Amino acid sequence: QVQLVESGGGLMQPGGSLRLSCAVSGSIFRLYTMAWYRQAPGKQRELVADITLSGRTNYANSVKGRFTISRDNAKNTLNLQMNSLKPEDTAVYYCNAPKFTRPWGRGTQVTVSS
Description:
mainly beta
């Protein structure tokens, strides 16, 4: 009943920018903290950033100062603005609710390479 649809990924050169979006269906958007995760090949899925109902944000040290998480309450959409991209940002990016995790979406591929 709840769907998470990520979009906005693609190929970008180091130093470039991308904006990811997550369309959230169902009620979790208005009830829980939402977050972006990423998973690189052969690595564990990791938390990238999250945002509470009140708008408080938290970031992994690896992306702090470069990424910005936001939410559009009117559209039930979670966003991730990624600036100053590095090759190590290459991964599939997913969204979900950390405290009430739903089935994972397909994610969106981000590839940073020159």
